[in-house]
Structure formats: C-alpha cells, structure tokens
Specification:
Glutaredoxin; six-stranded mixed sheet; disordered N terminus
Length: 207
C-alpha cells in the first residue's frame, strides 16, 4: 500500500529501491541520505537513495513497504545502552519495532517524540528500539538524548551502519518484526506513531 498525500493506493512493489528512489526524486518522502564523510561522499561509497537535504520536515511523509514480509531479521551486531554488543535476535519473544535514524536526519528527529510516546504506551505489549546510524556513535547520540528529554527510548548505536546496510533503505526506516523475528512491514520515511495509520499497522503484528 502506497500512501501519497493521504491517499492509500494498493500496489505491488517488485523492486522497493527503485520505488523509493522515484518517490524521493519526486519530493514525496522526507528522507535522508547516509551521513557524509569529510570528503563529502556517501559513507558507503554508493549512490544516494534520497536527494539532498530533508524536505517537508513539518510533515510526516512515508511509504509502506511489504515486499520483505517473512524475511528473517538481520544478524548485524550493534551496541546497546549498556555499551554491550547486541543483535535483533535478543528481542525475540514479542513484536519488535526497530527505528533506524540519525541525529543529523531532520525527519528522523521530527518523528522521535511520537516514537518515544509509543514506546512508553506499548512497552508491555511490544519492544521499540531506536538505533542511531551516526558514524560518530555515542559522541553525538548521547548528548542528543540528554537534550531531547525522551522518557522511554534508549540510545542504541550502529556506527558501522550494519542494520542500514541490511535494510538497503533511506533514513528514517522503521521495520516491524513478529515475535519470531520475521519482518511484517517497513515504513520508509517519517510517520506519526500516535496516528491512526500507525496504530492499524502495529495491530497486524500484535503490537
């Protein structure tokens, strides 16, 4: 289901990357490029998925992608709030929402308060984690959390971009897994996690 300007259109997306690229070039999704290295090039040396700076920061614009349904969660290792290495397998046993974001990504930051509210309200029914893709890791993420005043979310770090590489997507991307670690859907772009659309999506996996 593709959502543009509040209109839902059912569409099969055989190649989600081309679809994402087309929408981003059309200005339909407020997405972010990967963080740039000092030479101004994408950190992974590959072509950008999103074009330039974030657009429509004041709005939640996104695409729902179901083409990965049933796929197992990636095995990439990232860092938990206790500085210990962790993988997504550690969260199996109940639904899991993984938000890939970065402090420099304006749409990511815009949706974070609604994601924090979701984590606070649904903490017993599902797990919600926000995994920062900042290359500088705790150096920039920890100060951001201190200033943000979030109540439920904790700073998970993925400076190697292992989860983002596995997703092959733009930021922000949120992926919903069932209790066995199988993907149900993903949202590419910023969404209001307190809105009716998000609630309906989460209900699909028991969240």
């Amino acid at each position: 289901m593709l959502l543009l300007s509040g209109v839902s259109v059912i569409r099969r997306v055989p190649n989600p990357y081309l679809a994402i690229l087309a929408l981003l070039l059309a200005g339909s999704i407020a997405g972010c490029d990967r963080e740039k290295q000092s030479d101004g090039q994408p950190a992974d040396g590959q072509a950008n998925i999103s074009a330039g700076q974030a657009k429509g920061v004041g709005q939640f614009e996104y695409m729902i992608d179901r083409s990965h349904k049933g796929e197992a969660a990636p095995t990439a290792t990232f860092t938990g709030p206790d500085d210990a290495p962790v993988t997504l397998a550690a969260f199996r046993g109940r639904p899991l929402l993984v938000n890939l974001w970065a402090t420099w990504c304006a749409p990511c930051v815009a949706e974070m308060p609604t994601l924090d509210a979701l984590a606070a309200k649904r903490g017993e029914a599902m797990t919600v984690i926000a995994v920062a893709q900042d290359l500088q890791g705790a150096e920039v993420v920890d100060p951001w959390f201190q200033k943000a005043g979030l109540k439920a979310l904790q700073p998970y770090l993925d400076p190697e971009n292992g989860l983002l590489d596995a997703a092959n997507s733009a930021l922000p991307t949120s992926i919903f897994y069932d209790a066995e670690g199988r993907e149900i859907w993903r949202v590419v772009g910023a969404i209001d996690w307190q809105g009716a659309e998000a609630k309906a999506l989460l209900a699909e996996g028991g969240g």
